[in-house]
Amino acid sequence: MLDIRFIRENADLVQKSADAKRYKVNVADVLKIDEEKRGLQQQVDNLRAERNDIAAQMKGGKPDPQLIAQGKEIKAKLAELEEQLRGVDSRLTDGINSLPNIIFDDVPMGGEEDSVPVAEWGERKQTGVDHLDYAISRDWVDFERGAKVAGAKFYYLKNELALLENALLQYGLHKVIAHGFTYMTVPHMVNGRVLTGTGFAPRTSDQSDEYFIEREDLGLIATAEMSITGYHMDEILDEKDLPLLYAGYSPCYRKEAGAAGKHTRGLFRVHQFNKLEMYAFCLPEQSKDIHEKIRGVEEEIWQELGIPYHVVNIAAGDLGAPAAKKYDIEYWSPHDQTYRELTSCSNCTDFQANTVNTRVRRSDGTIENVHTLNGTAISLARTLVAVIENYATDGGKLTVPVALRPYLDGREEL
Fold it and tell me: What pLDDT was estimated at residue 261?
């Protein structure tokens, strides 16, 4: 979330960014609650000082009936005001949490259709198979039994497709480790504070893509980004140790409540999939360069896999709450003759770190929030779609991308 001091000093900028991101919020209303809270806090502080003064006067002496009466009156008034303060503080927290991060100046204005391609690679094929029909014909995927066991959009991967998924993971691990990321597996559930800190705030009250555990302060993660955001929660990192680069592997669980009108064919948009995620904690002055580094790793992966793509600078109206800027890499779908989202990478500046209280101590002793960034190395289900569409042969076989052959015992074809 944004720091309240920043909101006070930059109210117009905060409102402008919220409007650009199409969040229906009013910064002035949040600041009114903030003013109310500060007024109540001052009254509470004054009463506490009076209470302490009376206690000091009564210490060691004969109880003064007048002071006792004053103390009781202050105690009752203080209890009333503290209750009011808790309520106002809760309203203020909700108000601040409703405000999205500030966008960078080079983020395009508008909605999804206004996002701007900034790079392109590869030759676009003009024909391709339907990945779902192809995988079913090879007995590689089973959505029917997935639905029987867990519901629609759950599935089993089988045979060579399951092996191909594992090969993609092993290849991705080799790549991110070579680029200096520390590999970790992560908890598949996180508590409410981490969920809030990650910044997955819906635009409307009925829009939430996360699964929550009833009667528990826990939710299933939609990405390893959530778990890694909380990894250094309430810690002060040393300047000399930054940046810290992590790569988290996990299943991802999503209701995909906001998927209306989106492409949902087969494996492209499902309720559970596996993903290898890159994440960085860094100094504020490092974050723009690291954003480009993460994007570069993503591009390197798709070039080595031979998947044609373009990179898109996402428009403000299509950005989530935490991102100040986001790139999407969209692969060329020869079957659909269009680009479809494959991965993304976001610079969240100090938006997440402020909420989970992850800070850095500079060499001069000063302390400030770190910046956090995230980017998908490989989203395995969608990558399988892209590989099938681009590598299925006329003879009904699948050519194995050269980069994956070492992880499939050298097999050239499946």
Answer: 64
Say if strands 338-347 and 371-379 run parallel, antiparallel, or are unpaired: antiparallel
Residues 122-138: tens digit of each pLDDT = 999 999 999 999 999 99
pLDDT of residue 204: 47
Which residues, 6+ apart, have CB-to-CB distance to 299 below 8 Å?
A: 119, 121, 309, 311, 329
Name the residue with tokens 């903030």. Answer: 34
Pick among 3.30.70.3270, 3.30.930.10, 1.10.340.30, 3.40.50.300: CATH of 112-408 = 3.30.930.10
Side-chain half-sphere exposure of 28, counting CA atoms within 13 A: 0
Check whether 9 has a pLDDT greater than 80. Answer: yes
Fold entry, domain 4-97: Helix Hairpins (1.10.287)
What per-residue confidence (pLDDT) applies to 208?
Answer: 66
